[in-house]
Design a protein that fits this description.
Helix 7 (about 135-145) runs parallel beside helix 9 (about 175-190). The protein has one domain (about 5-235): TIM Barrel. It is built from ten helices and eight strands. Helix content is about 40%, strand content about 15%. The chain has about 240 residues and is of the alpha/beta class. Bound molecules: 1,3-dihydroxyacetonephosphate. 1,3-dihydroxyacetonephosphate binds near residues 91, 198 and 218.
Length: about 240
């Protein structure tokens, strides 16, 4: 089933997350589409308590160790206890703004899988990479950092999020998105679920599914409003 995932980034307090969950529950969800939300870690429990039970809730970032002297980090096991069933790893904001390297992103993936969570691993090139024809090479490098068994894991999905399309209003075209999906699946040597992310909204979302290759979308800004998030679900539902 197609997946619409909302990454809230550093938005929504616990109380705002609760209100969002209540709004979504009141409005009801369309059939034929899976919904998933990534609130801040502080709001996990508030969202889990209020969204319809079919909505998955995930953690945006988790340390590979279960516990220890890692100030400011939380573990996948802790997120799971708070109700998370998914985890993001390798988001370009972690890579670009917090200097996280391929190896750390890959370790975070392993930690999430070990904790029993589903993982959405993000990859994507910068505009200068694309202009220099390096998109494939960047995606292969990011994917190649994963352990073989993690790449083969049934609980791993990949989100293709070109850095230049995130929060810019310049969404990638369906052709660019489809090319990346096929490249990622070829690299993984299996038909794993690949999502597209970057300036997706209710108006442009349908075009990504026309090729039949995309497993879902990962949405930032347009997932923050419950009505707009629901519009995305309705547009994508089969
Ligand atoms: P926008 O939809 O705001 O471009 O963000 C995309 C994103 O980074 C989702 O992880």
């Amino acid at each position: 089933m197609r997946l619409v995932a909302g990454n809230w980034k550093m938005n929504k307090s616990p109380e705002e997350a609760r209100a969002f969950g209540q709004d979504l529950s009141r409005a009801g969800l369309p059939e034929g589409v899976r919904a998933l939300l990534f609130p801040t870690a502080l709001a996990l429990e508030h969202l889990v308590a209020t969204v319809p039970s079919t909505v998955g809730v995930g953690v945006q970032n988790a340390h590979p160790e279960v516990c220890g002297a890692f100030t400011g980090e939380i573990s996948a096991a802790m997120a799971k206890e708070a109700g998370a069933s998914w985890g993001l790893a390798g988001h370009s904001e972690r890579r670009e703004l917090f200097g996280e390297c391929d190896a750390l992103a890959a370790e975070r993936v392993s930690g999430l899988l070990r904790a029993g969570l589903n993982v959405m691993f993000c990859v994507g090139e910068r505009m200068e990479d694309r202009e220099r024809g390096l998109t494939d090479r960047v995606l292969r490098r990011q994917l190649g950092a994963l352990k073989e068994e993690d790449l083969a894991h049934q609980r791993l999905s990949v989100a293709y999020e070109p850095v230049w399309a995130i929060g810019s209003g310049k969404a990638a075209g369906p052709k660019e998105a489809t090319e990346a999906v096929l490249m990622i699946q070829e690299f993984a040597r299996r038909p794993l679920t690949v999502l597209y992310g970057g300036s997706v909204n209710p108006t442009n979302v349908e075009r990504y599914f026309q090729s039949g290759e995309l497993g879902g979308v990962l949405v930032g800004g347009a997932s923050l409003n419950p009505q707009t998030f629901r519009e995305l679900l309705v547009a994508v539902a089969l």
